[in-house]
Amino acid sequence: MKCEAEVGRRKILEGIAIMGLGVAATGCTSGQVSTKAEARESDSSSQYIFGYGSLIQKESREETWSKAGKSFPVSVQGITRGWYDRVDTVSWGPTYLGAFPDRRSTCNGVIFQVAQGELREFADREEGYKLIRIPPGDITMLDGRSAPPPGSFWYFGSASRRYVSQDFPIVQSYVDVCVSGCLEVEDEFPASRTAKFAQNFFTATTDWKTPWINDRIYPWRPFVHVPQANKIDTLIRDQLGEKMFRSISLPGARV
């Protein structure tokens, strides 16, 4: 059974946004913070977390915070997302989505409101990671609004880049959670569909690599467990190419 920290981290990342986390202090801009003290100083304002990986999906979000609340699709300038995060464990595990500050990059995902106590509790639990502030001016709403709601915005960034390897592959079950979340967003917000939210998840994510393991429970009937499997596979093939799509391997298959 996975420890609480590992489960929480997987759900956050991607991610991120997780998201699904830490970033070197030297990577923060003047608009970003890496201390829990500053998060506590913002008690008077609404707090929002930017989810850029598995937290895009409603079910995954609510597993981490049962009262996470409604989410809104956004694009954030200054964050780069990629396949380079993992949980240290004695057992095998996959590579997850991570994120770093990068003014040249843009990352899509969702923002959702959390109570101040939930933000503080998560920051305390994720010891060793960096809670980074997102300047509101870096956020573009993809729900039709011209500006984000008033409040403070945060994401959890990666401590280091540890890329996909034979022991830490990309796994389809995690990709399914992230992309299912993107498709949920497009179904709920027509403006995000016009902005090609699901496609941008692929193009705004770096380091798509193999090994990539198809670990769906019944891979020959994936729709039983992943209702949107066909749409997800179509996006993978169209956005990353036929060669990458055909290189996704099944558990136990020769690579």
List descriptors.
single chain, 255 residues, alpha/beta, seven-stranded mixed sheet, two-stranded parallel ribbon, 9 helices, 31% helix, globular
Describe it for me?
- By secondary structure, the protein is an alpha/beta fold.
- It has nine helices and nine strands.
- Strands 1, 2, 3, 4, 5, 6 and 8 form a seven-stranded mixed beta sheet that branches.
- The radius of gyration is 17 Å and the shape is globular.
The helix/strand class is: alpha/beta
Shape: globular
Percentage of residues in strands:
15-25%
Average pLDDT taken over every residue? 80
Order of helices and strands: HHEHEEHEEEEHHHEEHH
Q: Percentage of helical residues?
A: 25-40%
Please mark out the parts with pLDDT under 50 across 5 or more consecutive residues, or reply none: 1-44
What oligomeric state best describes the polypeptide chains here? single chain
Per DSSP, the total helix count is 9
Total strands: 9
> Major sheet, described briefly?
7 strands, mixed
Give a nutshell description of this structure.
This protein has 255 residues and is an alpha/beta fold. The protein has nine helices and nine strands.
Topology readout:
Layout: H1 4-12, H2 36-41, E1 47-51, H3 58-64, E2 71-85, E3 96-114, H4 116-125, E4 130-134, E5 139-141, E6 152-157, E7 170-171, H5 172-188, H6 190-194, H7 197-203, E8 205-206, E9 212-213, H8 229-240, H9 242-247
Parallel strand pairs: 1-6, 2-8, 7-9
Antiparallel strand pairs: 1-3, 2-3, 2-5, 4-6
Helix pairs in contact: 7-8
